[in-house]
Design goal:
Layout lengths: L11 E2 L14 E6 L2 E6 L5 E4 L12
Antiparallel strand pairs: 1-2, 2-3, 3-4
Bound molecules: zinc ion (ZN).
């Protein structure tokens, strides 16, 4: 048995998001590259760096 690394290219599509280029909806996905996430459109090849989303608020209780 060969163990393949679990590195599936899971594309996180943005539901309901429209591409600013081709205006298609649900064609853009998030492509994590290094420290910046890119919003990539599969239709027209549009790419745009995405600001890191600060979802989790850091808890800094002292
Ligand atoms: Zn597009």
């Amino acid at each position: 048995m060969t163990q393949l690394p679990k590195r599936k290219l899971s594309r996180r599509f943005i539901a309901g998001a429209s591409c600013p280029e081709c205006k298609n909806i649900d064609t853009t996905y998030i492509d994590p590259r290094q420290e910046t996430e890119f919003r990539v459109c599969i239709r027209c090849g549009f790419e745009e760096p995405r600001e890191p989303v600060v979802d989790a608020k850091p808890l800094r209780f002292q």
